[in-house]
Amino acid sequence: MTTINRILIIFAVFSMPVSLLAEQPTVHMEPLHLQGARILQEQTASAAVRDYLQSWNILSSALEQNRDDMLDPDFVGTALDEFTNTIHEQIALGIHTRYLDHAHDIRIIFYSPEGLSIQLIDTVSYDEQILDNDKVLTTQNVRTRYVILLTPAEVRWRVRIMQVYQQ
Length: 167
Description:
Layout: H1 3-20, E1 26-29, H2 42-65, H3 77-93, E2 96-111, E3 118-132, E4 135-152, E5 157-164
Parallel strand pairs: 1-2
Antiparallel strand pairs: 2-3, 3-4, 4-5
């Protein structure tokens, strides 16, 4: 391998993370005004929202790569089952999905008295692309509202339920 090839490989490896960084979505979170037996500490709320937003990144990567194993650290229960099924359906159809996340408007609406769940409502804006290999078949701009149930794990909050919220 020539010196130039080595330099190009090193440059590609170190520049890749910069090129893979997508524009971060804007995040708006309403102030906490929960009433109940247990007070939601700001640190707990921040950790839950941080973990929830990270789960969007993981979900996006898992759906784009059709890898259900990527979901395990961030999803459990119904959410894990539904997204695993979606990935298996995509594989069967020979497609994958890319999400380009634009904005989240998050409102924490419930914190259980035992501290075992946090419920959010998130109005999300994103572009959804359906791809066959690298060919974009469709692109759709989506703005929808989700209800999310987070449950604590050893070191983070995990998404247990993530459903479109119908009023």
